[in-house]
Amino acid sequence: MVTDCEGRGITVMHAFLKKEDRISMEHCLKLSPQQNIFVATSCFVVHKDIAEIGAIETVFPDTLVNLCSVHIHQAVRRFLQKEFLSDSVETVMDIFMSQVYIESEKEFHSYIVSGSARFVPQQ
């Protein structure tokens, strides 16, 4: 996705591949710079497809690859609903999701030190 002048995300590329393996995805990604599709790309947002992540890391080694926050949210919620009491699930989800958007180790450390991260074991 790219962000348009109004701040909305727009999908940049769809690809229909005969095989969704790493080599096929790498080939597809290598074609895109020739068409200037990924000029100045700073981040890819993907589902949890290991082949897709590997292909992106090979073709764009200096670009961040993030998992889709909607899918992270769903997976974590399912896990928490099995493992925690229902009254604490929302609190733990809020804490977890606030960490999903942290972009650096420094920011994460500041988050921990500030006391925002309740439930983190003290050492």
From TrEMBL:
What are the residue boundaries of the ZSWIM1/3 RNaseH-like domain, all occurrences included? 1-63
Name a Pfam family for this protein: ZSWIM1-3_RNaseH-like
- InterPro entries referenced in this protein's UniProt entry, alphabetically: Zinc_finger_SWIM, ZSWIM1-3_RNaseH-like
UniProt protein name? ZSWIM1/3 RNaseH-like domain-containing protein
Species source reads Plakobranchus ocellatus
